[in-house]
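Obj: model holo form, ligand = nickel (II) ion.
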Amino acid sequence: MNEELIIEKTRDFVKANLDGEGSGHDWWHIHKVWKNACNIGSKENADMYVIQLAALLHDIADWKFHADTEGPRVAREHLEKLGVSEEIIEHVCKIINTLSFKGIGSEKIMKTKEGMVVRDADRLEALGAIGIARCFAYGGYKGNPIYVPSVKPRRDLIFEEYKRETSQINHFYEKLLLLKDLMLTDTGKKLALKRHKFMEDYLRQFFDEWEGNA
Ligand code: NI
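Output (holo structure tokens):
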């Protein structure tokens, strides 16, 4: 099977698995990460085949809903069925395993260029207009409040603390606004900065409205 067909089959597999998922990790999240990854990867001189497979499969079993090892296992099973080489499978699974964000103190190191591209592409999803939409969609799914003025954002969280969510506005300060400094590729950094500024504008307006000043 050629690479193009394998990517197509992987896209169909992921789409069938995640369609209608309600927490912001649905097919369209994957679609956007895939497109972001193609955009960044093409400017970073990386292996687009590995990038595309990893981007498509990166949330196939997200840690918020399943055990840590489930994603790489499902991805491997799928790729083995399509006859993808062990070297590629190994690389893709490594990227998926290293990818998920578990609080700023629990960062795993992404070692390859392809992994850096996919990580940046996934992180862009938490930034900008899309990031804001996803933040509140996730909050609604979890039943979290939009904002609680008396509960301040926390700093330097380890995973156990990060899992205990307070409000979605706090989530901006505990994660979203920190992401621009964690981008790994030059292209990713540029895109992140633009989205970061948009979120800062959004928060200014939010607090003005909250106080009845706008
Ligand atoms: Ni993702």
